[in-house]
Amino acid sequence: MGKKAGKAKVAKRVKREKKDGPKKPKSAFMFFSQERRITLKTEQPDLKITEQSKVIGAEWGKLSDVDKAPYAEKASQDKERYNQEKANQLAPAEEEEEEKKEESEESDDD
Fold this sequence. Notes:
Blueprint: H1 28-43, H2 49-62, H3 65-109
Helix pairs in contact: 1-2, 1-3
């Protein structure tokens, strides 16, 4: 007796707010994927994006460390860029906090 027939409730996705700050660094695979996807589109224009991803992933897995090295170098440069931008972003925020503390201390002295 008791069970109701019907659709199961599906949880709604919660949209995340974009955080201010630098764009996260790309991995070596992402650099390879971007480059390879362009040539793959011209070679096989009928492939769906999911099929392209499978082909690219398989090719990445077959690459030797020597062949992956240029992409790893790009990834490390991008990581350095990210760390630098992150440091530059944090520095002004810390200065503002210090200024606010100094202002509040000055008003407390009165």
